[in-house]
Every structure is written in structure tokens, then in C-alpha cells.
Amino acid sequence: MSNNNTVAPKLNREGLLPNLRRKVLSSQSFYLILIIIALTIVTQSVNPLFLSSANLRSVLGQISTLGLLSCGMLVVIISGNFDISVGSIIGLSATVMCLSIKAGTPELLAALIGIGVAMACSTLNGVLSVLFKAPAFIITLATTSVFTGISLIITNGKNVPVYEAFYSLTSTYILDIIPLIFVISILGYVFIGLLLKYTQFGRRVFGIGCNEQAAYLAGINVKLNKVLCFAVNGFMIGLAVIVYIARLGAAQPSTGSGMELDAIGACIIGGAAINGGRGDVVGTFFGVFLTNIIFNALNMMQVSSYLQDISFGVLILISIGIGSIRTVISNK
Fold first, then answer.
1. What is the pTM of this model?
2. 302 by DSSP, 3-state: which?
């Protein structure tokens, strides 16, 4: 009996360490943290202002909008879809929100209207994709032009300034470094994380992304849940628009142009599978953080903006490669 008692813990420890090592090495966040640390050390040595409170406030403010957008995009990507109309939805939602404020609508009501517009547009994408049995990529490619056109019509192509709208969101700091809008984005991560991990809807999203046919045979209403994915995406877009307007104080039809690619890129960098079925908010957070850290670091080192675009593309390719390595490690 005594021999068995002394041997058992040893066996447990021997089995625990390889499992822990496998889990760490298969985590996308682990590699992203290493890159962030290395990049921070290099940039700080080149420019001591990189870790200054002013620059940290700027970085945290910048990642707030993209963070909320990436959370919504993550849900869509896990379900096996893409939404490339996000930029045009931002433009339409932001212009409607700003026009409402200029017309005398209270900021809270204008914010709800903007969120409603974003949710309606994104939900429409899901409905059309299900109705026409067409890839969401093609549907959102078409609706991008529609949403942008509506924005141009209602604004006559002009800028809509509301300089002090949601001012308290950008003027409030915690510990004099953390902006309130960053806290809002963190709450967005928490919301999506809980939704994906602890709700029946979240489990269905992963099931649909892994194998849509198997999910259908298991009794999951695939069409409804796909539409709900886009509705959640629209809600997060609406929140991102509020943060965006709070930071910039204006909107125009081109507002948000290209941000859909940044959101997709951040999710992929964070470990989301491009064909669906895999992804998490922790990886997405570090994907967003690393993306903005790279651009900020290159700016502080006065690197050409052309090279910055190249670096973002290379980072996505590297992330896809890391994803392949993770798959191999997890299968061993």
C-alpha cells in the first residue's frame, strides 16, 4: 500500500508536465505574448517614449474600437463565415448616430439608434446568406455597396461633426493611464467570451463552424444560429461606433473603411481558424493588441507606412503558419 501511495504522485507529475507543455505550446496567445515582449524591448531601446504614459494611453484608446469590432467578427468567423461589410456598416451607423445628435436627439437615444442600425444591417447579411444559400462573403460584398450608398445619400457625401458627443468616454481615465473606452472594450471581450463558452448558443456556434452538416443532423437550427451570429456582430459594431465617435467627434460615409480587414486579421492573428470552428477572445485580444503595438512601434521608429502594411500582411501569414503548428502539436 505504501509503495503505491509513493509512486502515484510521481506518475501524476510525470504526466502533468508534458500535458502542460503541450497546452502552452499549442496556445496562440503564448506566441503572441512572446512577440509583444520582444517588440516592446526593441522599440523601447530605440525610442524611450514608447512606454511613456502618454503613448500607453494612445495605444489603449486605439485598440478599443478594433477590439469591439474583432469580438463581433470572432463570432462570425467561428461559425465559418466572414463579414466584409463591417466598414460600410460602421459608416452608416456612425452617420445616422451623428445626424441624430445634430437633430437634437439625446446622446443615449442616438447611441441606441446607431446600435439598432448596425444590428439591422448585420442581421440582414445573415438573413440574405441563409435565404439565398450563398456564402456570406459574397452577400456582404454586395451589401457593402448598398450600405455605403445609403450613407452617401443621407449625408450628401459630407462630414457630420459632433465634436463633444460622448465626451466623458474619452476624457475619463483610470489610474491616469487606462481610458474608459478601453474598459468598455474589455467588457465586450468578457461578454463575447461568456457567450461563447457558457451558453448553448456558443456551443452551437462552434458546432456549426466545425461541421455544419453534423450540427444540422444533431438537431441544431443552423440557419437561425447563423443569423444570430450576425446579429451579435451588429451589436458589437454598434458599440464600436460609439467609441469611434467619442474619439473622433465626427462621421462620414467612408468612416470605418478597411476596418473589417483589420478585424478579420486580428482574429486570425489571435488564433481563429479561417475555416471556422476555432477561436477565443483571449487570443483575439492579444491579436488586436499586437496589431496596434506593431503599427505604433513602427511609427515611433519612423518606418514608412508602406512597410507597415507589409508587416501586417506578413504577421497574418505567420499566424496562419503558427495555427498549422498548433494543429500538429494538438494531434500528437
1. 0.89
2. coil
